Amino acid sequence: MANILEVPLSNVFAWTDSRVTLGWLQGNPRRFLTFVGNRVAEISDAIPVACWRHVKGADNPADCASRGMFPAELVEHKLWRSGPQWLRESEESWNVKVSFDKHPIPSEERDVQQTLLPVITTDLPLLERISSYNHLVRVTAWILRFVNNARKRSEGDSSKILSLSELKRSEEIWWRIAQRASFHEEVCNLENGKGLSPRSKILPFHPFLDK
Questions:
Q1: Which of 62, 73, 127, 132 has the greatest number of beta carbons closer than 10 A?
Q2: pLDDT tens digits for 137-163?
């Protein structure tokens, strides 16, 4: 947009009343869960992080429409039509520019102890590229079919529709990955014929390994 309007990028400012959003924007998109990371990357590509500023909710024109005002009210609403008064003054007098180091990375940042993704994305980059569970299952099913067809000497399955058994197999694979990632110590103990630690959160469920 800045290129189309021939506006120098140094004069472009983006505003948000969400300090959480500013916290996301200061971080590397790969540090977040896929849904947040993808959107942070898109925003950062469109508008440099240095252009972002914080605006109080009371001064945010976008809130006028999002809080249920009627169209007739918006027509005459000064903030909606013209924005905050201080925006017409020089940048030095805005008193809204905030340092990004004041905005800690929100809890959506990946936590090895709380989420599956950081445990396994090093070896499974597919999780970095897909944010929908159903999409993940279907893509995995197609990959499994391709591998199965490649191993066969005769012509493999060429159907354009995934079967229920293929989708079920794909889901079971991700269930096993999730179990091993979340309860790695427990799985290793069970595989080696050892008992679970008394500190294990799943000990009351008497877990066991099936085929």
A1: 127
A2: 888 898 888 888 887 766 667 777 888
